[in-house]
Amino acid sequence: MMMIIDRIETIRVPEHPNSLWVQIHTDDGLVGLGETYYLPGAVESVVHDFAAPLILGGRAFDRERHWQELFSHANFFGYAGAEMRAVSALDIALWDLIGQHTRLPICDLIGGRCRDTIPVYNTCVNTPLHDDQDAFLSRAGDLAESLLAEGIAHMKVWPWDRFAPQRQTAGRVGPAGWSAVGPPGHRLPAADLQAGLETVRAIRARVGDRMAISIEGHSRWDLP
Question: Is this structure's pTM higher than 0.85?
Answer without folding.
Answer: no
